[in-house]
Amino acid sequence: MRHLVAHRKLGRNQGHRKALLRNLVISLIERERITTTLQKAKEARSMAEKMVTLGKKGTLHHRRLAYRFLTKKNPLKKLFDEIAPRFSERDGGYTRIIRLSTRKGDGAEMAILEFVDYEFKKKAKKKKS
């Protein structure tokens, strides 16, 4: 029975799994939208939401707690200065998971993990001269 088993192992040991989730959350904060497998997205979602909650509180203590997980200054600054204020009126549910089709190589279920207020902007096409 799987009583009291809270998280997915994702086929990795503890250190590798922690680094993977850290890098997914950092990428999400930097880009505000990432594509990954469904299981990784579900695990990264909880960590990302915790980071946004720390960002909303905004004290020095919470900034240090977030830095302990994120370990990079640019995503930390963006989290506290840009992302967290956008969700100041929201009590939770800062991210969404959009399911995609399966990956061609191994059939893994793919998903997009993004912030709820993300707006897709098309890239300008380059003109050929």
Secondary structure topology:
Blueprint: H1 14-31, E1 33-37, H2 38-57, H3 60-70, H4 73-86, E2 95-102, E3 109-115
Antiparallel strand pairs: 1-3, 2-3
Helix pairs in contact: 1-2, 1-4, 2-3, 2-4, 3-4
Specify the overall morphology.
globular
The whole-angstrom Rg is 16 Å
Give the fraction of residues assigned to helices.
40-55%
> Largest sheet, order of strands side by side?
1-3-2
Number of helices: 4
Low-pLDDT stretches are: none
Termini gap = 65 Å
> Strand fraction band?
15-25%
- Write down the secondary-structure element order: HEHHHEE
Q: Average pLDDT, to the nearest integer? A: 92
Describe the structure.
The protein is of the alpha+beta class. It has helices at residues 14-31, 38-57, 60-70, 73-86, and strands at 33-37, 95-102, 109-115. The chain has a three-stranded antiparallel β-sheet with strand order 1-3-2. Strand 2 and strand 3 form a beta hairpin. It is globular. The mean pLDDT is 92.
Task: Briefly say what this structure is.
By secondary structure, the protein is of the alpha+beta class.
Question: What descriptive keywords fit this protein?
Answer:
three-stranded antiparallel sheet, 3 strands, 49% helix, alpha+beta, single chain
